[in-house]
Amino acid sequence: MPFFPAPHSDVLSLLIQISLLLFLAKAFGEISMRLGQPSVVGEIFAGIVLGPSVLGALLPEISNWWLPTNEVQGYLLETVSLIGAIFLLTLTGLETDLKLIRIHARTAISVSLAGIIATMSSGFLLGMYLPESILPSENKRL
Asked: Is the dihedral of CA 128, 134, 138, 141 positive or negative?
């Protein structure tokens, strides 16, 4: 398959999207830090606000301009988003306080295990006592 570079208009659209994302992520990160939360909380919130669920619901005309309108724009933004997510997770991991984790490890593990056991047990019990009319097949209760 031959390679075709992205049209200049799509690259310009990507640069505008990245600029706006970075600006709002930084602004929301600063606000989050002033509220006593990690900056990553504000940065993630900025992504949610700029996405189709918030911006698309409140201001659909801006959302239609902001979100990718063709396949190439979608691929470009997806690639940059994946790279950004890798950096975000890396930075979040670097900010992790390992001493604090060691102090609270036993509590965290016991709470996690209790949550998993309670969820799986209740799901299993629900599956065992469901009426047969709801099951897709009598032989496939488990």
From this structure: negative
